Amino acid sequence: MPKITIETDLYDQVEQIAIAQNKRINDLLNEAVRHYLWELDQRKISAESKIYRQHHAELKHQYLGQYIAMHNGEVVDHDADFQALYQRVRQRYGRTPVLMTRVEATPERILVRRGFRMERPEP
User: Fold this and answer.
1) What is the pLDDT of residues 75-98, one digit of tens each?
2) Can you give the residue ranges of every domain in the chain?
3) pLDDT at 121
4) Spatial contact of 74 and 59, defined as CB atoms under 8 Å apart
């Protein structure tokens, strides 16, 4: 198993939290690293989404109705079949976050939630 070095002060803080949460230090650190990596992925997809919206007019002209894969601000692949695109992207980029979206007439889809019902509490 690989070994890592952590600053003493940081280790002490993690140890205190682990004790308070009744967790093992390794489990807590793994959870923290997973969360950090997830946040990085979300930031990358958010940045790609912003670029997608900025260039939507051009993308719509070229790819309307197709799925695109956007990586580092560039369309790296496209297909009418999402599953085929997904497989190629994962084969090429592995777990690297890549925006995959269908190019629609508008840059953002409006989602409508149906079936939500509010009730007044009984007195």
Assistant:
1) 999 999 999 999 999 999 999 999
2) 8-102
3) 64
4) no
Nearest-angstrom CA–CA distance, 51 and 46: 9
pTM as predicted = 0.76
For residue 122, the surrounding DSSP H or E stretch is: none
Cα–Cα distance, 47 to 52 (Å, whole number): 9
Show the DSSP H helices in the chain as ranges: 8-20, 25-54, 56-63, 82-93
Phi, psi of 76 (to 5 degrees): -105, -10
Measured between alpha carbons, how far apart are the two ends of the chain, in Å? Answer: 61
- Give the model confidence (pLDDT) of 15-31 as tens digits: 999 999 999 999 999 99
One-character DSSP codes across 69-104: EEETTEEEEEES-HHHHHHHHHHHHTTS--EEEE--
Instruction: Tell whether the model's pLDDT for residue 113 goes beyond 80.
Output: no
